[in-house]
Design a protein that fits this description.
Blueprint: H1 2-31, E1 41-44, E2 48-59, E3 62-71, E4 76-78, E5 81-86, E6 89-96, E7 99-100, E8 105-112, E9 121-133, E10 141-153, E11 155-156, E12 166-171, E13 175-176, E14 182-189, E15 200-205, E16 209-210, E17 214-216, E18 222-228, E19 233-241, E20 244-252
Parallel strand pairs: 2-11, 13-20
Antiparallel strand pairs: 1-10, 2-3, 3-8, 4-7, 4-9, 5-6, 5-9, 6-8, 9-10, 12-14, 14-18, 15-17, 15-19, 16-18, 19-20
């Protein structure tokens, strides 16, 4: 009898414990729901590959759409813009940067005036317009629009996400002799701390010689240039992308 009573107690309280544990788990998910990001699928027929996209419901009447794509056309492009067609309604989404090198990345981000309930399937047609440049100065262009799609399950977030861009620049040596070379390494990352491959980094200095003034980041978000000078002095090497920049100082003696 005592054994049977012990078993009955174990079953009763064990079941209650499982229910409490499940409830606590659900509460944890609800409390932290605003901080979950759900990458989804997207693609283009030609011209661009789609790296990843996000659909974030902000409230009942606004949803943020974020798209990262890569220029695989093999040509320079400028001033990209994105049209998102959701059902019979079109929405305009802004994109950066204004100049995309061959193999470069484009970031599109905008808020549409439609609330997409969390968990709701979201399917939209994409039309990415980017004038194709037949030279680096974009003095000879052709307007092309590349069609694609994006599919998502909307995720809720309590405020618009500001696209974070992070850039860093380092030199393997900051004190050089005349005509000695320094290796300059630049790193660029974006939303969700993802490295940005193919981003066109503008590199400048207040003197001396750089091996390149426009360099694309590689698959892991890094770009490399070299600097030297035949004149003694202090030189500021600056790397910039869109609206962010970072500098390193090199002394030549």
């Amino acid at each position: 009898m005592r054994i049977q009573s012990s078993i009955d107690l174990l079953v009763a309280y064990g079941g209650a414990l499982l229910i409490v544990t499940a409830a606590l788990g659900l509460l944890f998910i609800i409390v932290n729901y605003d901080y979950i990001f759900t990458p989804t699928s997207c693609g283009f027929s030609i011209g661009f590959s789609c790296d990843y996209d996000y659909v974030l419901q902000i409230n009942n009447s606004a949803t943020q759409v974020i798209l990262y794509a890569n220029n695989i056309e093999g040509l320079y492009m400028s001033s990209p813009s994105l049209k998102l067609q959701l059902g019979n309604t079109n929405y305009s989404i802004g994109c950066i940067p204004n100049f995309i090198a061959a193999g470069g990345i484009v970031l599109c981000d905008g808020i549409i005036d439609k609330g997409i309930s969390p968990g709701t399937e979201f399917y939209a047609k994409l039309y990415l317009t980017a004038p194709t440049c037949f030279n680096k100065n974009c003095s000879d262009v052709a307007i092309n629009t590349y069609s694609g799609y994006m599919y998502a399950r909307a995720t809720h977030y309590n405020a618009p996400v500001v696209l974070p861009l992070y850039i860093n620049i380092t030199a393997n040596q900051t004190s050089l002799s005349l005509n000695q070379y320094a290796k300059i390494t630049i790193f660029l990352a974006g939303f969700d701390n993802k490295p940005l491959p193919g981003a066109s980094i503008v590199v400048s200095s207040n003197g001396g010689f750089l091996s390149s003034y426009l360099q694309n980041t590689n698959a892991t978000g890094y770009a490399t240039v070299y600097f030297h000078s035949n004149t003694a002095g202090s030189y500021v090497i600056n790397a910039s992308f869109y609206n962010i920049s970072k500098s390193v100082v090199i002394t030549v003696s």
